[in-house]
Automatic annotation (TrEMBL):
Keywords: Cell membrane, Membrane, Transmembrane, Transmembrane helix, Transport
Top-rank taxon, per record: Bacteria
Name listed for the protein in its UniProt record: ABC transporter permease
CDD domains, A to Z: TM_PBP2 (cd06261)
Location(s) in or outside the cell: Cell membrane
PANTHER family per record: INNER MEMBRANE ABC TRANSPORTER (PTHR30465), INNER MEMBRANE ABC TRANSPORTER PERMEASE PROTEIN YEJB (PTHR30465:SF66)
Keyword Transport attributed: yes
Membrane spanning stretches: 9-30, 119-140, 152-182, 204-227, 262-289, 309-335
UniProt organism field: Caballeronia cordobensis
Gene Ontology biological process terms from the UniProt entry: microcin transport; transmembrane transport
Membrane topology recorded in Swiss-Prot or TrEMBL: Multi-pass membrane protein
Amino acid sequence: MWSYILKRILLMIPTLIGVLTLTFVVIQFVPGGPVEQAVHDLRRGQTEAGGGFGLRTHTGVDAQQVEQLKKLYGFDKPPLERYVSMLGKFARFDLGESYFRHQSVWSLIVSKLPVSISIGLWTFFITYLISVPLGIAKAVKNGSKFDVATSLVVLVGFAIPGFVLGVLLLVLFGGGTFWQLFPLRNLTSDNWATLSLGGKILDYLWHITLPVVASVVGSFAIVTMLTKNAFLDEIRKQYVLTARAKGLSERRVLWKHVFRNALLPLIVGFPAAFIGAFFTGSLLIETLFSLDGLGLLSYESVVRRDYPVVLGTLYLFTLIGLATKLISDLCYVWVDPRIQFEQLER
């Protein structure tokens, strides 16, 4: 087991280097880098300083200022030197400092985590708490009117993009046209610090309701149908027929014999789904509901060419994704001892 784990950890290193190298190379050819962005901001600031009549008092940025900007952002060094320096810092988990926010990348990520964790946790737990029992019920009543009706409902929810549903929720319940029942921005109210404990909990739930509903509806179909199909596959197997022939009740057969084997693919997928809920939050959902999370941070960093944030978040997310994949493989063996590490390596 330990040799397998060691091999997987060692394989993470070239994967990380490959992702970072490819991104670094692409960055070198993308127009409008941080130096150009800073020059543009300087020129715009000089134009605005010309007065209320739009007079341009000073439109140029001299070569000395450009060289100072290149030195400030590290672009006065050759690409290879910058690349090696980046790998060395990432090896020490030093993600650098944002060009434009004047904060370390770590502090930026930590400051955005509450939003991503809030949406991710609620999306994960609500999805599984509803989808797993629903999938079991659909498998037991396969082909019934209940099965057909619930399949139609979850598939319609899956077909509606989260941001479209978010717009609809805002129009209906956010004061867009009909009712002003829920707030339009942030996770808490401005007076949240002065509220009692119960008031804080209610205020938080009040703010998080619409974003979570918009995020979670499209997630029901996959988990529900996966649960249903997994249970149907197990119900049709020989050991279930044998258990029924021995006179065991349908409830005992379902929960004692079928349940454990059918949940294998779901349990194995828990780590990836749990972590993925944090880091794959919809950018459009965060923008729509004015939630300053990791998705919005990544988008703004790409737009502004804030390369330390882009590369730092990419490095962190890739590392977490690789670790999650390893944990998922270990879960296979933990849930089903018949699976050996030698089989996983094939």
